[in-house]
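Lab notebook: predicted structure, single chain.

Context: the supervisor wants predicted structures on file for every construct in the current expression panel, including those that have not yet been purified. This is the next one on the list. No modifications to the sequence; it matches the entry in the shared construct table.
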Amino acid sequence: MATYLTRTPSSSGSNTTWTFSCWTKRGTLTGSQVIFSAANSANSQFVDVTINGNNVFELDILDSNSTRTIRTSTAVLRDPSAWYHIVLVFDSTNAVSSERIRLYVNGERETSF
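Prediction complete. Output recorded below exactly as produced.
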C-alpha cells in the first residue's frame, strides 16, 4: 500500500515559479512510479513527475490555457539500490522558453528530452 503526503494550501498563491526537490529510491523497476503530482481541485491544471515504465523521467504539465507539455528524458534510472536526488525548477516568467522547465538528477542538469 502506497503512502502519500498531501497538502491543501490556505490560499492560491503563485504558480508561476516554484521548485521541487526530493531524494528517491526505486523499489521496483516495473511500471510507472509517480514522484510528484499537483493539481487544482478540478484537475484542469496539473503537473506530474514520473519515472515511467521505460525507466526514464516523464514530466507532464497541463496549464490554464489547456496546453499540455510532456517531456521525457533520455537518462535511464534503473538501479534499485541507488538514491537519486531530483530537483525540478519551473519558471513560466523566464524570457527564454528552454529555461522555463529545468530538471536536475544528482546535481546534473538533464538537457536531453
